[in-house]
Amino acid sequence: MQPQDLVRDHTVYACVMGSRAFGLATDASDTDRRGVFLAPTPLFWRFEKPPTHVEGPGAEQFSWELERFCALALRGNPNILECLHSPLVEHMDDTGRELLSLRPAFLSRRVHDTFTRYALGQRRKLDADVRATGAPRWKHAMHLLRLLTSARDLLRTGELRTDVGGQREPLLAVKRGEVPWSRVEAWAVRLAAEAEEALRGSPLPPEPDHARVADFLLRVRRASALRAEPDHRVGQGAGRAGQR
Length: 244
Fold this sequence. Notes:
Layout: H1 3-10, E1 11-17, H2 19-22, E2 32-37, E3 53-55, E4 61-65, H3 66-74, H4 78-84, E5 89-92, H5 94-101, H6 103-106, H7 110-133, H8 138-157, H9 168-175, H10 181-200, H11 210-243
Parallel strand pairs: 2-4
Antiparallel strand pairs: 1-2, 1-5, 3-4
Helix pairs in contact: 7-8, 8-9, 8-10
């Protein structure tokens, strides 16, 4: 089975991400598609394991195998958590619906560290751009502010919202380079401080619910193995017959 066949035949959840999911799309925006596929359990019984992620088959399309996706979500990976909360869902089967029902299990106060660490990495790149060219890449500056806003609000409310709502026009003004870099810097510093303050009283639990997610993954893997068992037995029988 080719990697892209796993996406075509075994996707459990698919959505649109990027500017379209964030409420920041313009006529020139791409359509970024993300998804989760469930590799059939018998594929893990081979020496060569199924891939943890697959690019394609469509343009701007990227998918993760379910176990990898869950592991990253438990670590508070911003891209993964936002994927789980996209308002633009394109496909979802029963496994995908249960995955979405687990969204609260993945959220914890760890998001302060992961979101702000990611934002700090982006800030360093922007600072390097300013030193090299005198200006940042404004699209990246916009997304830095969007991410910090998302982290602050998540820590305040315990809920992750991807659409920027009323911040659309101020953020697009940053993207167009209409806001001085000094103001963008001050905005980012203020958001980081507000996220730090929100952490202290956050309704989020200290850690994600590993046990609940592990139980989900075990049940899904077991069900996949049971569905494949008749074919597996036929294959074993044919092999033994050929050895006699």
